[in-house]
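Support request, please re-run this one:
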Amino acid sequence: MTFARRHSFFIFLILGLLSAIGPFSIDMYLPGFDAIADSLHTTVAHIQLSLTSFFIGIASGQIIYGPLLDRFGRKIPLIVGLVIYIVASLSCALTNSADNLIIYRFIQALGSCGGMVASRAMVRDFYGPTESAKVFSLLMLVIGVSPIVAPTVGSFVITHWDWHGIFLVLAAITTCILLAVIFFLPESKGANSAISLMPRPIVQSYWQVFRTRQFFTYAFAGGLASSGLYAYLAGSPYIMITLYGLDEKQYGMVFAVIASALITASQLNRYLLNVYSSAKVAKIALIVQSSIGLILAFLCTMGTMNLFTMIVLIFLFLGSQGFVFPNTSALALAPFSRLAGSASALLGGLQMAIGALSSGLVSYFHNGTTVPMAAVMAGCASLSLFILLAGSPRPAGIHQDQTRR
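Re-run finished. Output below.
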């Protein structure tokens, strides 16, 4: 495989789209909760369980794909996962039962995991540990567009068709991605028959990854920082629409503005990495994020928060995340080559599990105020910083002159 081909824009685009399937599946149907609940003769709270089931599926499913990607290569498990996603999306579109929707969303999440795990592993395969942080920043450009585009597309579909159309659109988009994977995405690592799929070796492989100090520190630090985003996703519809009186269109605009912080920061990160190490950028970003989170929680607790201030603080909070995610992901995966698939799966599984927990905490402590969302966001960022400072491993697999800066 030539250098030009490996680094082509089209490869970046496919990997980015694979990474964005999960986030797009979450954000696109958020504006349709009321319509889905009315159509299926149930409550919005019941429909929210389909979001919870998606989080559970996307957290647990990634663990399944890790050994498969190491054993059979990257593309075959990826293609199988995309097919599962398409079938589950069509099932969601055709269902007339809220309970079935919850089940189908779980299966849909299992399918989307293939793209998320494979894309991270292929970044590690193609570009190695030194360039991975920059590549993850580029992928964030595609992933970050999801919160901007997806709610708008979802609102358009609901307005001109109905909520069933959301899942038909998701199936159509993923079919196009599947065709691109089959015909244009090169295999980054072939099958390895030495990798066993028996339970004991699989557990041993995951344990080998988990007990690596660098992985543990950066996976949990990055996962906790990311979970602040999921707390925002869980709490913002009620806060922005019910408490502050925004309509769906205004909420979509605010959502897009806040999401732009994530995109902008992730692209600035690429240039910062020419001067500073990934470890240093992640540390500074977490200090900023935890500080902003504490200010947000304090103002909400004191009852002095207004809509404009909240938007600004969340904008800065998620902007910090744009620096955290690419660097912690690259540093967590850097020590691994043979087990890159398992490491990618465990990284994603931990991140989504923590994200599901944070969104669940926002719902559990819901009291009709802004405090639960703000408190969870602040707690996640602060705990992330604590883990990073406590672990502070010397990054392995990164070029030596980077680690000295």
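The mean pLDDT is 85. The chain has one domain: 3-187+194-403.
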